[in-house]
Amino acid sequence: MKQKIFLILYYGFAMWLPSSYSPLIGKLCNYIRIYCAKRIFKKCGKITTIDRKAYFGTGKEIEIGDYSGIGANCTIPNNIIIGKFVMMAPNVYILSNNHKFDSLTTPMCFQGYTNFQNPTQIDDDCWIGYGVIMTPGRHIKKGSIIAAGCVLTKDFDEYSIIGGNPGKIIKKRQSK
Question: Is residue 139 annotated as part of the catalytic site, yes or no?
Answer without folding.
Answer: no
